[in-house]
Every structure is written in structure tokens, then in C-alpha cells.
Amino acid sequence: SLVGSALPAMADGAEAAKSHWSGSVSLTSDYRFRGVSQTDRNAALQGGLQYTGSQGLYVGAWASNVDFPGASSEVDVYAGYDYGLDENTTIGAQVIAYLYPNADDSEINYYEIIAKASHQMGSVGLTLEVDYAPDYSGEAALAVQGGIGAPILDSVYLFNDGIAASAHFGHQSFDETDGDYNFYDVGLTASAGAFALDVRYVGTDIDEADCGTPATDRCEGGVVVTGTLSFGG
User: Fold this and answer.
1) What is the b/e burial string over 144-163, where b = at least 16 CB atoms within 10 angstroms of the residue's CB?
2) Which of 44, 146, 165, 211 fits 31 for a cystine, CB–CB 3.0-4.6 Å?
């Protein structure tokens, strides 16, 4: 997901004006989506760009390399709306299309409808998200996931913007096949200006024998390290 940074566009006067554009470039040791490796436990180069309007509407695109049979790249395009109920609570809706431009089989492309909410309770942030795919490889799929995060250090060494801890847990279910599973992660994010270094353990409860055909180790837990440089916003 895109993370804004403190690199604003300059106004005509002395003050900086907030930019409607934001984006990021990341290098990660393993691209994980809901706990499952999309790169066969190898590294990925990722980047995205988002335009956010003044009324809470936004559109964007994001891309990464992947390692699927017959596909080596993923491009996601999305649009959404966020609405602040008060200064601590935000709800939103989003539609996102997951596209694999060079895939041998175009049927692996699909889209999701997402409802989400976030709440700030003091220094602790809470998130809840429900993702529905009407046609995921010929069947409906539903994911429900929640997260919690909080700062733990104000500043440490080069990371003058501190370190935050976060964790997520989710459940992915399918309408017809017996492939339901749980996914989770827990980790730390250290920030310094526009740069963030994230280290976390990511995993699922999928047995290796049930992870793909033929079976792979894409679903096994592991440590993922990601460096992200953000801009705009």
C-alpha cells in the first residue's frame, strides 16, 4: 500500500502546500499477499502512484514482479473513498483490480470490493477490512482482516521518526473449494523521513501439501524485510 511522506509541493508563497500526489518505491525480500508468497520466496521490486482529491476520493496504481506459472508481473489499479466520522475514526470503500498483463491465462485477473475502517485510540491504531471477490478463479472469495499498531520508540539511531510495532490477522474463505485459511504477521517499522524499514514475520496455517499444485513452500512462515521510499502527499 502507498505511504505518504513529508515531501510537499511548494506554493507560490513561503508555505508548503500539501500535494494531491503520493507514491512509493519498495524493495522487499518476499512479496507476500495474505500470507502467501507471490514471488516463490524471492525478492520483489514494487512501486505505486496515487492521486487523492480534496473530498476523500482517490485513484491509483501499483505494480510488482511475481513468480507464477505463466506470469511474471502484477499491476493493480484501484479507486476508493475515505470518510472521517470524527477526528479518530475513518471508514472507506474501495474497488481494486488485480491484473497480470503477461499471463498465459487471462482468467487469473480478478477484482475485489473492499470495505474498511480505522480508529485511533490514543497512540494505538486499529484497522478492520472486508474484501469480497465475486469471481476469483470461478468462485466467490471473502477475506476479513484486522490490525493493530502503536509507536514504541520516539527515535533510535538513524531512525529519527521512531519505531512502531504492528500486527495483523485475517481469514480467507472461498465459496466452493475447501481452501479456507488464516494468515497473520507481526513486526516492526523504523522510519526516517521519507524512508521506512519494515521487518516482520509473515505466515499462514496452510499445510505445504495444500499449498499449490504441485505443492510448494510459498505458504510457510518467514521473515520479510522491506525498505520503502515514499514521496508526495
Assistant:
1) ebebebeeeeeeeeebebeb
2) 44
Coil vs helix vs strand at 107: helix
Per the prediction, the chain carries an average pLDDT of: 91
Q: Based on C-alpha coordinates, what's the Rg of the chain?
A: 18
Of 196, 193, 233, the closest CA to residue 49 belongs to 233
User: What is the per-residue pLDDT across 167-215, written as a single tens digit (0 to 9) for each?
Assistant: 999 999 999 888 999 999 999 999 999 999 999 999 999 998 899 777 7
Cell of 28: 522487499
Name the one residue in this structure whose C-alpha cell is 478492520.
128
pTM comes to 0.89
Query: What pLDDT digit, counting tens, does each position of 134-150 carry?
Result: 999 899 999 999 999 99
Phi, psi (rounded to 5 degrees) for 137: 55, 40
